[in-house]
Amino acid sequence: MLKWLFGQTSSDTAEVKGPSGKGGSGSGKPEVLNLTPETVTQAALEQMATTPDPRLREIMEAAITHLHQFARDVKLTPAEWLVAIDFMTRVGKTCTPERQEFILLSDTTGLSALVNLMHDTTAMEVATDTSLLGPFFRENAPHFKPGEQICKNISNGEVAMYGRVTDVKGKPIANARIDIWQTDENGLYDIQADASGAMDSRGVFTTDANGNYLIRTVPPLDYSIPMDGPVGALVRAQKRHGMRPAHIHLLISAPDYRELVTALYLSTSKYLATDVVFGSSSEDLVANVVENDPNCPLKGMPAVHYDFTLARMSEADRRSGRVGSDPSKIGAN
Ligand code: BEZ
Ligand code: FE
Fold first, then answer.
1. Sign of the dihedral through C-alpha 118, 211, 151, 264
2. Secondary structure of residue 250 in the 3-state scheme
């Protein structure tokens, strides 16, 4: 599917068909498209109808139909179109292996949230709600033992996270892998705080035989998305605050279960209802930090207790990719 994305061979090249315009042989007039604002959409669709890949054809037909209608609706001028092209060019130029401005554009327009929410409806069982992976996930984070601290600096206090990973019927999932990542005590991800690439405030934990996990971290902070690029300029032009509510990202996986990409949002954040990237989309993902929780295995430490459930993996899940990507992998091939 969508093989064209990964390079095209000469045998894939579709036979070029001529236009189906008016005139032509017999009328004495040359065969041209004779377009109007109303007919250009149909002409574009007819030309693309040769696309052999059915999913590519479906996606491009819908994209062209909606894009053309959008341009007609707002009566897009040539000058405005050039502003848009300039903007998209700057979005592309802002991307590096560490920074994905296109993901940020998708996030701040709600498109990432929409794609994820639609994807959630395809799960074969109702498990823990999902949330955006975001642009700060990194593969190959360090592994920790239960209860170990993932942050280098803890001078502003620590917080424990504990609970269980089970299937939707409550059966514990042993050896589930929990990737966790969050902002440090200054509200920055390691990628932002340290240009050397050193990892901090992220790690991998494994559940025990009863599905229990125990993580030691610092309280995450509300933080601003990167506002120094073209997407930040757009967000500012819209008079939006650019903030995300304090949260902890988690990616939980186990063989034969659908990978869970989610985040827990602190109930104390004032940005829960206005998250600039629409990630705090479920009240079930709001967590309380409890002082002196008697059940927390790390005594005396403020704690978040959260149990996660994983849905069984369907055949479609096996074929579909992850809901997000390590930014360094995008465009790398
Ligand atoms: C994040 O949660 O890390 C994030 C998500 C979307 C855009 C920026 C940051
Ligand atoms: Fe985040």
1. positive
2. strand
Q: What is the pLDDT of residue 124?
A: 92
Please name which of 212, 190, 211 lies closest in space to residue 201, comparing C-alpha atoms: 190
C-alpha 136 – ligand 2 centre gap (Å): 7
Distance CA 246, CA 304 (A): 13
Q: Residue 248 and residue 222: Cα distance in Å, rounded?
A: 11
Mean pLDDT by 10 residues, the chain (333 residues): 52 48 62 89 96 97 98 98 98 90 94 91 93 89 97 95 98 98 94 89 98 97 94 98 97 95 96 96 94 93 97 85 66 69
3-class secondary structure, 208:
coil
Name the closest ligand to CA 107.
1
> Could you identify the residue written with the tokens 């996990």?
213
For 153-310, where are the alpha helices, taking DSSP H only? 190-193, 230-237
Cα–Cα distance between 189 and 207 in angstroms, integer? 25
Rounded Cα gap, residues 74 and 96, in angstroms: 33
Kindly give the pairing relationship between strand 308-310 and strand 159-167: parallel
Residue 249 in tokens = 């990202």
Length of the chain: 333
How far, in Å, from the CA of 57 to the mean position of ligand 2? 35
Cα Rg, the chain, nearest whole Å: 24
Beta-carbon neighbours within 5 Å of ion ligand 2: 134
| pLDDT value for 14 | 45
Is residue 248 within 8 A of residue 194, CB to CB? The reply is: no
Q: Counting runs of H as helices and runs of E as strands, what totals does the chain give?
A: 8, 11
